[in-house]
Design brief:
Layout lengths: L10 H16 L20 H13 L12 H21 L12 E2 L4 E2 L2 H22 L3 H17 L1 H4 L3 H18 L1 H9 L1 H19 L1
Antiparallel strand pairs: 1-2
The structure holds zinc ion.
Length: 213
């Protein structure tokens, strides 16, 4: 198997990335703290990620400059945050029932978004979040690592959310699907090493399941 070199990953950036996944998964539900209605579209959308991207693109050489590549810390932060948010949207995509607080809420107009449109928007927001995270990745190692982070996070959250299969299945499907589409290097790597990866994946999944069961 073509070996991955994870030592190329910046350590400080990595810690920041991991930290930001945990913030990203929590952030949408801060709508309460911001005195908004639950599932407000202001926090339940990639709006804040666009804001981060704006800062990143405009000040990328001076903002949070850690490591070899100046902006790496902030880049990892956005990647982690986006994946965390995407996973939050995936949980929200499978509510106990599609009524009341499960629907997206639009402030100012003070209106709920209808079921079909809420579902569509949650899927769209998840895709946007993952596209941004994967788009910011600069190597197969980074994409792989953040994929593993997301996967572990879903496992760790299982008890709290009482959901596992559907969000995890959607995560695998969406993340890999998007990575295949926008990251040709990642795609080639997977195709070349599919047999070995399948074996590693089996061991990984078994380990995660024994850890959480
Ligand atoms: Zn939510």
């Amino acid at each position: 198997m073509q070996s991955l070199n994870f030592t190329a990953i910046d350590t400080i950036g990595l810690v920041l990335g991991l930290f930001s996944i945990f913030i990203g998964i929590k952030y949408p539900d801060w709508d309460f703290k911001l005195k908004l209605k639950h599932r407000s579209i202001l926090t339940h959308s990639p709006l804040i990620i666009f804001f981060f991207i704006y800062i990143y693109l405009n000040k990328q050489s001076s903002f949070l400059g850690f490591g070899r590549e100046k902006e790496v810390g902030f880049r990892y932060f956005i990647m982690g945050f986006s994946i965390g948010m995407g996973i939050h949207f995936l949980y929200d995509l499978f509510p106990k029932g599609w009524k009341g607080s499960a629907l997206l809420h639009i402030p100012i107009l003070n209106r709920k978004v209808r079921k079909q449109k809420s579902i569509f928007l949650f899927i769209l927001f998840t895709i946007i979040s993952f596209v941004i995270a994967i788009g910011l990745s600069k190597s197969i190692e980074e994409t792989t690592l953040f994929f593993i982070f997301g996967f572990v996070l879903l496992g760790l959250n299982k008890r709290k959310e009482e959901k596992l299969i559907r969000p995890t299945g959607s995560f695998l499907l969406l993340f890999l699907g998007i990575a295949f589409c926008i990251d040709s290097e990642f795609y080639e790597f997977i195709v070349k090493n599919i047999k070995n990866l399948w074996m590693v994946g089996e061991v990984g999944i078994k380990t995660v399941f024994t850890l959480i069961s």
